[in-house]
Amino acid sequence: MTRKTMLVRAGLGGFVLAAAMATTPAVAAADPITDFLCNSGSAQFCPVPLPPAPLMAPAPRSAPAPSAFQYRNCTEARDAGAAPVYRGDYGFGQHLDRDNDGIGCE
């Protein structure tokens, strides 16, 4: 064989090898028998991929429950060391929040 013929055969062989590598999966399955049967055209042996799990929406946040105890007035809240009292805090009452901004006894 001449040197030119050998280079042509090596070039064709490299082309065939590259085509084979491009068409085969890069990572084989964990089970080589299943991998062989699935790639040979027997679809009955191919594992079925599971659909992705649906995304769950976060639960809506509820407003804090009002406490049963409310300070009678801001003087009582200040004497207890609780002023300012924020909406949802222990002792908050709507009557303590004159401008309805969520902060009582400002």
Q: How many strand units?
A: 2
The rounded Rg comes to: 38 Å
* Strand order across the largest sheet: 1-2
Distance between the first and last residues' Cα: 100 Å
The main sheet comes to: 2 strands, antiparallel
How much is the average pLDDT? 74
* Helix-strand topology string: HHHEE
- Helix vs. strand class: mainly alpha
Q: What overall geometry do the principal axes of the alpha carbons give?
A: rod-shaped
How much of the residues is beta strand, in percent? under 5%
What share of residues is helical?
A: 25-40%
Unreliably modeled segments: none
Q: List the total number of helices.
A: 3
How does this model look, in words?
By secondary structure, the protein is mainly α. The chain contains 3 helices and 2 strands. A two-stranded antiparallel ribbon has the order 1-2. 7% of the residues are buried. The model has no long low-confidence stretch (mean pLDDT 74).
Topology:
Elements: H1 3-23, H2 32-39, H3 74-79, E1 85-86, E2 103-104
Keyphrases for this structure?
mainly alpha, two-stranded antiparallel ribbon, 2 strands
Quick synopsis:
With 106 residues, this protein is mainly alpha-helical. The protein has helices at 3-23, 32-39, 74-79, and strands at residues 85-86, 103-104.
